[in-house]
Fold this sequence. Notes:
The protein is an alpha+beta fold. The protein contains 3 helices and 7 strands. The protein has a 7-stranded mixed beta sheet with strand order 2-1-7-6-5-4-3, with helices on both faces. Strand 5 and strand 6 form a beta hairpin. Helix 1 (21-27) crosses helix 3. The radius of gyration is 15 Å and the shape is globular. The protein starts with a strand and ends with a helix.
Amino acid sequence: MIHYTLTTGDSRPSPRDEVDAGLLDALLPSLAQVGQGYQPLPGPLGERYQLRLDAAGRALLATVQTTIGADQRAPLATWGVCLDQVDEQPLWQQLLGLQRQLAAVMPAHQHRPQIPASRPWCAVVLLPGLLHDPAAAQWLGDCERCLAWAWVEGTR
Length: 156
């Protein structure tokens, strides 16, 4: 799988074997929450972070948000997981639209995102909520890749 960050243009291969099978099994129940709004992130991070999963066809759109105050939440990242060509363009356009909105308020992030050349791919838009919780950047990439692989495994 290609793991691509639209916000920065960074890209890296994410082989299946870098995700522990036990972790994938632990994440599979989260996929049952598709379309149910924000739910606690699986594991110990669930006290502070929430995950929203939405699907269209075999494409997944995920967003993680953090609690920053008694009643405030801030989205940290949104990512899409694409398995096949049928769902690729609609998912890419949705992510690109979000990236364009972000670039309008944070012009320093101006580059031309390129759709990954092969599938499956996981493409990420980093959101301003990371400014409220910069420590989340240490685990967020792993969360994106692990959930993406769980989606791949769960939709076969």
